[in-house]
Sequence to fold (295 residues):
Amino acid sequence: MIPKYIKKAADLQTKHHSICNGFLEQALQKSEKAKPFLKEAKEFYTVLKKVKSVSVLLESPKYRDNLAFACGFSEKAKSQLTDDELDGAIKKVLTRIHKEAGEKFREDILYRYLLTKGDSLGGSMRNLTGSSAGNKLIEKIVKKLSGSKKSIQITKSKSGKIQRVAWNGRTLLFDVTPRLVRKNIDVILVKSKNGDITKKELLSDKDNYLAFGELKGGIDPAGADEHWKTANSALGRIRSAFGRKNPALFFIGAAIEASMSKEIYKQLKNNKLTYAANLNEDEQVDDLVDWLLSL
Fold:
């Protein structure tokens, strides 16, 4: 099936102005998200300027996490160590920093702290990029369903993230790992008798599955091929799991390069993919949503 707004492979390719707008949006989001990081860093440096040696810092548990970051321990790394192990490691690293940096140990600690926190900010930005793409798709789906006056049930996580949208015997699930595939899938459409049925029940019956979709929201062309490989691999696992009775498969991407667009278009032509869309092209995404909700 070839979607009506995709006449050739180049129609899927991300335009230069979309890449520019995507990077600008990310820069603005990153600037806003960096504010609490900067505030915390300034407060930490105010404390650093007042201490005479690292031994004073080690005596205060208040700044233990800051010191752990300065020593290069991320949140994930800290979770793998006991308190005693982490304290011992912090002491060793700080002693070395003080020995090597001398009187400039305060600045050295701050710079090291910023390096680790900066990496943490980068990770949160990657998560934000993915969630923003998902939110764009969900908003279009909910808007379309609301316009049709269908009864909609929306389930959110404690953090406010939408996990499922249910209506008229259909349920869309986001970021789930079905036992049949054993890998996380971005979007799954299943049959459902009511919106209260558990996720496990929805995913236990092969006949319930109507569509699987992979959504990649990163706008950086440099990572586009890797995102497509990951998505294509996931879609391939679904084909293997279901065999001839394959549900509909679709792909939505923000960064689609020329070589990718040709491969995606080829899969649309030979029915390996049922639908596809460039996330920056509203007509394509709207068309995909109409198709998805018609299943």
